[in-house]
Design a protein that fits this description.
By secondary structure, the chain is mainly α. It has 4 helices and no strands.
Amino acid sequence: TNPKKIQQRLKLEDYFKKEMSKLDRNEAILKAWKDGFMQSEIAKFLELSDAGVSKILKKLKVCKKVTFLKV
């Protein structure tokens, strides 16, 4: 799937519900980022700092790799 095509169809609003747990929000951040949204776009939308989004992504990417390796 081409991330640019996904980005044209989906908006950041489509990734995030008004009431989400922090874990669900963080997973949505990772999905939006993988689908081609920039960290700064996500941060601005969620009213988080760029550094905060970067830390969330780094943590999730490491966790996903560890989980993948354990399977």
